[in-house]
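REQUEST FORM: STRUCTURE PREDICTION
Request ID: SP-0412
Submitted by: Lab K.M.
Chain count: 1
Length (residues): 224
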Amino acid sequence: MFQNRKLIIATKHQKESVIAPILEKELGINCFINETFDTDTLGTFTGEIERKLDPISTAREKCLQAMKLSNCDLGIASEGSFGPHPSMIFINADDEFLIFIDTLNHIEIIVRELSTSTNFNGKQIVGRKTVELMTTNQIGDLEVWDTGNKFGLGFEIVTEKGVAKIHGSVGAFKWGGAYSTDYIIDPTEDLIMLIYTNVLPFANPDINKRFRIMVYQALVTEKK
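STATUS: Completed
RESULT:
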């Protein structure tokens, strides 16, 4: 279906260096770019040029324009956005769409990659050693209630005694709000857990514990 066909990669930002080797190996096609096609005319991910369409429509239009300009019936294009995560609004994310179009065989495939591994709008406001100090036990032999955990400078710190009682990782740190909101930051698992409630006092005092258990039970593969 694809062997020895040409495919245009609609990009002006060297994305072909990543995309071309994979497609050429797996599909047996010949990838190329058209340097006369300026993909930024449809908008830039940084916002200097406003994007008129939604991300998927922009990727599709970008791909079709490049295919038409290059007289090619096989194309691929991507469209990325940086900004707040769609469900965890306090975390920045990279939202990437990739579209593959084959007009000869009437095929359109869209894939999405949503990642929090981005330095978009990121600013380090405290030093690494300050963070270490904040997440180090500051209460000696005392414990946080009956959890077996310790307390640093603003965070409850999960200990070996703590993970013996409920799922978690030693060194994770957590706290919550007056109206039952809770969060946990687990550097070992590269994981942030947030549960938002608006109840005072707890209507269900176990809901945060159950949420935490369910998240950790869902970790079924080794961390890469």
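NOTES: The chain is about 20% helix and 25% strand.
Reviewed by: T.R.
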